[in-house]
């Protein structure tokens, strides 16, 4: 399932075995790699399609950490 340019996606971190971040698809190369950009830090990287999914999880926070402030 290809992701069009401009699509918000989540990135799978194979090291930690979890989904993380919110990225925007910037470019699709001829070799099939996706250039993505982090929406918060503006960092960019190239990844394979299997490491992406549609950005469907809303940002969250742990309320108990904010109650103490």
Textual characterization of the structure:
- With 69 residues, this protein is mainly beta.
- It has one domain (8-67): SH3 type barrels, CATH 2.30.30.140.
- It contains one helix and five strands, in the order βββββα.
- It has one helix at residues 63-67, and strands at residues 8-13, 18-28, 34-38, 44-47, 52-54.
- It has a five-stranded antiparallel sheet, with no helix packed on it.
- The longest helix is centred in the last third of the chain and has 5 residues, at 63-67.
List keywords for this structure.
69 residues; elongated; SH3 type barrels; single chain; 1 helix; 7% helix
Strand sequence of the main sheet, in spatial order?
Answer: 4-3-2-1-5
Strand content: 35-45%
Structural class: mainly beta
The low-pLDDT segments are none
Secondary structure tally: strands: 5
What's the tally of helices?
1
Distance between the termini: 44 Å
What is the CATH domain class? Mainly Beta
Q: Nearest-angstrom radius of gyration?
A: 14 Å
Average pLDDT confidence is 86
Estimated helix fraction: under 10%
Q: What overall form do the CA principal axes indicate?
A: elongated
Q: Identify the CATH architecture.
A: Roll
Order of helices and strands: EEEEEH
What's the number of structural domains? 1
What is the fold named in CATH at topology level?
Answer: SH3 type barrels
Q: Main beta sheet: strand number and arrangement?
A: 5 strands, antiparallel
């Amino acid at each position: 399932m290809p992701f069009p340019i401009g699509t918000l996606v989540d990135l799978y971190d194979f090291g930690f075995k979890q989904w993380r971040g919110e990225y925007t698809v910037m470019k699709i190369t001829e070799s099939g790699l996706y250039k993505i950009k982090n929406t918060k830090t503006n960092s960019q990287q190239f990844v394979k399609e299997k490491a992406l999914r549609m950005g469907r999880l809303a940002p969250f926070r742990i309320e108990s950490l904010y109650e103490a402030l």
